[in-house]
Write a structure and sequence with these properties.
The structure is a single chain. The protein is mainly alpha-helical and 358 residues long. The protein has one domain: Alpha/alpha barrel (Glycosyltransferase), CATH 1.50.10. Helix content is 69%, strand content 3%. The protein contains 17 helices and two strands. A two-stranded antiparallel sheet has the order 1-2. A hairpin with a 5-residue loop joins strand 1 and strand 2. The longest helix is centred in the N-terminal third of the chain and has 36 residues. The radius of gyration is 20 Å and the shape is globular. The two termini are 17 Å apart. Homotrimer. Keywords: Cell membrane, Ion transport, Membrane, Transmembrane, Transmembrane helix, Transport. It is found in: Cell membrane; Endomembrane system. This is Tellurite resistance protein TehA.
Length: 358
């Protein structure tokens, strides 16, 4: 491109070579789906902080005195890594909006990409949730919460209103697994609002999200066709969304009651259902793409819900389930980190159309 700034590097022989990406081309590549990386980092930070603060771990007689010394620095590292990654991707996306606004408009008009526009706000809300309390009290967290929830509500009105009234783009025509992301935004927003005592706001967000989740779930259950293979990892949201709802309702109601347990068990059932059908993801795993990060944060949501379930039930089986899901979450997360490090060049190639919305 005319305004691109080429990055020049020298190899060991002293020869000059052009890097594969330019500053301008990176802005055309980094779309809203890349925020799933920061979302997974934030979810992992929340899980680690939950494990540290969870009193059920000591009651279940696990040696979390040692684990606290290990998980404490790891949780702090994840929080800072999430902040840095989210700030970097947000900066690139803001520049994308300034210099390539037509690409952002294309995302806004795409039936899959528009759902990823919720992910930046969800990522910041999770980061706010993962921030240590002693740091949080020094921040205007109520102002920050309003600033993060307001865009979710605005996108809700646009998207849900379109599903409800549009003749060209009704839900039955555009529904796909990424359609769960708006509901995740509602539930995480409700979870965060309940955490600062905004019960009415939390109830409003939860009610809107829950009704639409039921409608989306039934729609997708009846028809799951025409979904691109590259985005099939996003099908993990089938079990991640009820877990997010479970955490939101637990924060609103003040306990892990029957409704929370039902949502948690639904998550476990859907997780087992997808794990038993690896052939469904066969085409999506041929080439690495940023969509693979959608495997990480839904598992982490289930793991966080399992910690609250273990706190409520206080049984060996519940504690074992918590450890199993937490270990699975960490395993998937580390695998995504390694795969991303090995495929960085692929994620920054302009000719990689596996996750292109234009």
């Amino acid at each position: 491109m005319a305004n691109s700034i080429d990055i020049i590097v020298k190899n060991s022989n002293g020869d000059e070579a052009e890097a594969a990406a330019s500053a301008s081309s990176i802005l055309t590549i980094v779309n809203a789906a890349y925020f799933t990386i920061s979302l997974s980092l934030g979810a992992q930070a929340v899980l680690l902080n939950t494990l540290i603060e969870d009193h059920a771990t000591t009651k279940l007689k696990y040696n979390f005195v040692v684990a606290d010394r290990i998980l404490g620095p790891w949780a702090m590292l994840m929080t800072w890594l999430s902040l840095c990654t989210l700030a970097l991707i947000s900066s690139l996306y803001i520049l994308r909006c300034v210099f390539h606004l037509w690409l952002v408009k294309a995302e806004y008009s795409d039936r899959e990409a528009v759902n990823f526009l919720f992910v930046p706000w969800i990522s910041w809300l999770l980061l706010l949730r993962a921030t240590p309390q002693q740091v949080l009290v020094r921040l205007p967290h109520e102002v920050l919460l309003w600033a993060l929830v307001a865009p979710i509500v605005a996108l809700d009105i646009k998207l849900y209103g379109q599903w409800f009234t549009s003749e060209k783009r009704p839900l039955s025509a555009v529904a796909n697994p990424t359609s769960h992301l708006p509901m995740v935004g509602n539930f995480v927003g409700a979870w965060a609002a309940a955490g600062v005592g905004w019960r009415e706001t939390a109830l409003c967000l939860f009610a809107v999200g829950m009704v639409h989740y039921v409608v989306v779930f039934i729609t997708l259950y009846q028809r799951l066709t025409g979904f691109r293979a590259a985005l099939r990892p996003v099908s993990s949201l089938f079990f991640g969304t009820p877990s997010a709802a479970c955490l939101a309702w637990s924060a609103i109601s003040g306990g892990f009651g029957v409704a929370c347990k039902m949502l948690f068990f639904l998550s476990l059932f859907l997780l087992a259902s997808l794990m038993c059908r690896p052939a469904y993801f066969k085409k999506s795993i041929k080439k690495f793409s940023v969509a693979w990060w959608a495997y990480s944060f839904p598992v982490t949501f289930v793991a966080v819900a399992s910690t609250q379930y273990a706190e409520e039930v206080k049984g060996v089986a519940a504690g074992g389930l918590m450890l199993l899901l937490s270990s699975l979450s960490l395993l998937v997360f580390v695998a995504m980190l390694i795969l991303t490090a090995l495929n960085t060049d692929r994620l920054l190639r302009q000719n990689d159309s596996s996750l292109s919305f234009t």
